[in-house]
Amino acid sequence: MFEIIAEPNRRAILSLLVSSQQSVGEIERQLRMAQPTVSKHLRVLRDAGFVESTVDAQRRLYRLKPEPFQEVDAWLAPFRRFWSAHVDALERHLDIMEKKKGKEKTTRPRPRT
Amino acid sequence: MFEIIAEPNRRAILSLLVSSQQSVGEIERQLRMAQPTVSKHLRVLRDAGFVESTVDAQRRLYRLKPEPFQEVDAWLAPFRRFWSAHVDALERHLDIMEKKKGKEKTTRPRPRT
DNA sequence: CTTCTATATCCCTTGACAGGTATATGCTCA
DNA sequence: TGAGCATATACCTGTCAAGGGATATAGAAG
Questions:
Q1: Which residues contact A38 (CB under 8 A, 6 or more apart)?
Q2: CA distance B112 to B57
Q3: Domains of chain B and CATH, by start
Q4: pLDDT per residue over B95-108, tens digit each?
Q5: Alpha-carbon Rg of chain B, whole angstroms?
Q6: pLDDT, tens digit only, all 113 positions of chain A
Q7: Which of A56, B15, B29, B102 is at 20 to 30 A from B70, Cα to Cα?
Q8: Euclidean distance between CA atoms A65 and B63, whole angstroms
């Protein structure tokens, strides 16, 4: 399951689908990917249960399915317990993240994906 | 970062390290992996910041670092919002079904958001 | 110093997978 | 029915990462 989300283009597709369902063509245009590439990634995502599709005339509308994300979350659980014992480290990390973002405005930046 | 945890042996190593720090040899024995394999995976994990090591005589003790896990968690956040809406809807639906059957509604713990 | 133990690295082979191009499939509408 | 659009698939090729085996490094012990 992790191999699925290891691919950057697939993560981009998933991020797109968070807001709403999209057709293949819409994904293709927004992500500037070739159509076969999009279709192939969607195939992988569908086989892995990350998305499902419905037919709308000649189009296919893809939307997210929650289960695999829950599995990722479940895998993360033991480590979450671990890191919550390291709140100090968390705060240091966030400080570093803030400093890295020094170029950006203090108003909420748009998510870049 | 996802490529790192996409590898099953690496996930096994990380799971081992949740309980406590381990030497390379201990990991090698518990997971029945060849020593160079363990060392190479640990190298990858260390470079990606998932683990760190300290020297103990000829041994190296590896332990988890929290930051990359937090990043995974951060990536998951938008999807978590998405799927918790789904689960809530499902529960409401099930509640309705229960009531239609005239049965008592058994209170269930809410999933953590 | 020599040897033993623990770990890291090097080299090589192999397999998986991603992208590109061409083509197939399927639906719509004139 | 045929043209045209939207999507899926087949085939090819290059890249990259994992595992195996040999070897290098470094500390410990005698």
A1: A13, A24, A27, A28, A31
A2: 44
A3: 2-65 (1.10.10.10), 66-113 (no CATH)
A4: 655 655 544 434 44
A5: 21
A6: 999 999 999 999 999 999 999 999 999 999 999 999 999 999 999 999 999 999 999 999 999 999 999 999 999 999 998 877 666 555 655 666 555 554 433 333 333 33
A7: B29
A8: 34
Which token pair is B36? 């160079």
Residue in the block written with tokens 């500037």: A32
Gyration radius from chain A CA atoms: 18
List residues of chain A with CB under 8 Å from any CB of chain B: 2-3, 5-6, 11, 14-15, 18, 64, 66, 69-70, 72-73, 75-76, 78-80, 82-83, 86, 89-90, 93
Question: Cβ–Cβ contacts within 10 Å for residue A54, how many?
Answer: 10
Give this complex's ipTM: 0.77
Give dist(CA A87, CA A84) in Å, integer.
6
